[in-house]
Amino acid sequence: MNDTVVQAAGCVLWRFSPVSGDLEICLVHRPKYDDWSHPKGKLKRGEDPLAGALREVAEETGYTAEPGGELPAVHYAVAGRLKRVRYWAAQAVSGHFTPNPEVDRILWLSPAAARSRLTQFRDRDLVDALGRPSGHRERRA
User: Fold this and answer.
1) How far, in Å, CA of 102 to CA of 33, rounded?
2) Which of 8, 12, 118, 125 has the smallest number of Cβ neighbours within 10 A?
3) CA–CA separation, 108 vs 104, rounded Å?
């Protein structure tokens, strides 16, 4: 295995549903891999990991995000190289999704639905790590 670790970053992007007020998590569909994942990507040379994570969210989802706490990093092998992806919780602030060559669809799902829709099991732990974002207030009828 090559000793060079590929550095990447992403976010578990969340919002409160505009309809119910419940917590929703954004997943992206990448047609190249036909998978569902959290928005993420490789860092540019010298790029700050958090800045890279927020850039990837904007590029893949069209949303700007307010970062929260750092979540556990994920490590896995790709083409014989180790890849390390650092993740942050991030609240979607504004934006609108437009399909692009890298991401053709997004879904806003409950944490349970997001966890089961994610293609890679390693990504499911990030939903659990997100837990209840600070400041989450229960919506009461």
Assistant:
1) 10
2) 125
3) 14
The continuous run of DSSP H or E covering 66 comes out as strand 63-78
Supply the pLDDT for residue 79: 87
Catalogue all structural domains in the chain, each as residue range(s) with its CATH number.
2-130 (3.90.79.10)
For the chain, the residue count is 141
Single pTM value for the model: 0.90
pLDDT band at 131 (very low <50, low <70, confident <90, very high): confident
Token pair belonging to 1: 């295995």
pLDDT in tens, 16-65: 999 999 999 999 999 999 999 999 999 999 999 999 999 999 999 999 99
Distance CA 100, CA 32 (A): 12
